[in-house]
């Protein structure tokens, strides 16, 4: 499973940083009142390779040699694993360091260190990630996702919403989707027919999928056919309270801690690499309504944070079933 992919002109733009202005910043040696200065752009680069001496120095040299300046860098080298992970944020002059040249420079660096992963994104230049959202009856995660997209908090473009639950034409969700020109596809599923072939036909140009409380299991054949990442959200009450109405089961059991987990989908049910987890305390003062509201709020927050981390290249695979999240 590839948790991140190399950005290209066909991939999206991360808008979390896109609105920052760097007009007042200059490169070393450049006059503050230089009439030829251009607006600086923001770049993100993640790197995974066998650990070796001098990787950080060469990464810094690659950026600095083109007049760029590193704003922040995170490095992780797991003990006794001889694997190097890094994520760098930098500013640069697009005139002095064109996007195509940047790609070539990082590719050369990747070859030098036999990198397993080298991904670069320039938010001002790269398009946003295209996603499709799969959902069942519950709306809370979908509605939060749509509002996050509308407000610019989530750096994605939504190509469509697919559901195995029919929604009336006058519902809040359908009105929102129609108002913003986002297609809605209702595909009724049964035990015998999960409609996976039809789903695949609707998502050919997406960069990843989001399951916003989609209560269907995606088969291994579907995941292999899609070939890209699928991000899921579920309540943190698993595996103690399985089946129908887990919140009611947990409430009746008097639990004191609830949570939510966002993870990548694999063939093993609810066992994919974890991206984000959140927890909150509950008490005897909570009734069923406040209990469910707290649980749903956690799910919304957890999914949004996981998506944002993914789009900002903060998530890297680690030891197969784990993730590094910078």
Helix content estimate: 25-40%
Query: How much strand?
Result: 25-35%
CA radius of gyration: 22 Å
> Could you say which structural class the secondary elements and strand pairing correspond to?
alpha/beta
The end-to-end span amounts to 19 Å
> Within the largest sheet, what's the order of strands?
7-6-5-8-9-10-11
What does the overall shape look like?
globular
* Element string (H = helix, E = strand): EHEEHEEHEHEHEHEHEEHEE
- In this structure, how is the largest beta sheet organized? 7 strands, mixed
Summarize model confidence as the mean pLDDT: 88
Number of strands: 13
Low-confidence stretches: 1-36
What is the number of helical segments per DSSP (H or I, 4+ residues)? 8
Question: How would you portray this structure in words?
Answer:
By secondary structure, the protein is α/β, with parallel strands linked by helices. The chain contains 8 helices and 13 strands. The chain has helices at 55-64, 99-112, 140-151, 172-179, 196-202, 220-226, 246-253, 288-311; strands at residues 41-50, 69-76, 83-92, 117-121, 129-135, 156-163, 184-186, 208-211, 229-235, 257-264, 274-281, 315-318, 322-325. A 7-stranded mixed beta sheet has the order 7-6-5-8-9-10-11. The chain has a 4-stranded antiparallel beta sheet with strand order 2-3-1-4, with helices on one face. Strands 12-13 form a two-stranded antiparallel sheet. Helix 3 (140-151) links the parallel strand 5 and strand 6 (156-163). Helix 3 (140-151) packs across helix 8 (288-311). The protein is globular, with a radius of gyration of 22 Å. The two termini are 19 Å apart. Residues 1-36 have low confidence and may be disordered.
């Amino acid at each position: 499973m590839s948790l991140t992919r190399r950005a290209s002109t066909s991939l999206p733009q991360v808008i979390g940083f896109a609105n920052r202005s760097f007009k007042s910043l200059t490169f070393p040696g450049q006059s503050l009142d230089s009439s030829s200065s251009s607006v600086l752009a923001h770049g993100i680069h993640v790197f995974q390779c066998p650990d070796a001496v001098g990787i950080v120095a060469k990464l810094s040299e690659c950026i600095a040699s083109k007049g760029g300046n590193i704003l922040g860098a995170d490095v992780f080298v797991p003990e006794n694993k001889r694997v190097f992970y890094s994520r760098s944020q930098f500013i640069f002059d697009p005139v002095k360091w064109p996007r195509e040249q940047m790609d070539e420079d990082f590719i050369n660096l990747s070859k030098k260190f036999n990198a397993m992963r080298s991904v670069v994104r320039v938010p001002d230049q790269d398009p946003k990630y295209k996603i499709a959202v799969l959902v069942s009856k519950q709306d809370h995660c979908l509605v939060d996702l749509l509002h996050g997209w509308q407000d610019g908090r989530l750096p994605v473009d939504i190509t469509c919403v697919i559901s195995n639950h029919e929604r009336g034409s006058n519902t809040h969700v359908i009105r929102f989707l129609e108002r913003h020109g986002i297609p809605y596809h209702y595909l009724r599923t049964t035990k015998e027919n999960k409609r996976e072939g039809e789903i695949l036909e609707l998502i050919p140009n997406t960069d990843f999928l989001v399951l916003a409380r989609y209560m269907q299991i995606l088969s291994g054949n579907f995941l292999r056919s899609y070939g890209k990442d699928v991000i899921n959200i579920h309540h943190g009450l698993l595996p103690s309270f399985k089946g129908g109405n887990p919140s009611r089961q947990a409430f009746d059991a008097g639990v004191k801690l609830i949570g939510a987990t966002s993870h990548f989908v694999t063939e093993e049910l609810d066992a994919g690499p974890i991206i984000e987890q959140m927890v909150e305390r509950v008490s005897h003062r909570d009734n069923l309504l406040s209990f469910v509201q707290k649980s749903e709020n956690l799910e919304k927050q957890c999914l949004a944070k996981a998506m944002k981390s993914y789009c900002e290249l903060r998530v890297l695979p680690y030891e197969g079933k784990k993730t590094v999240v910078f």
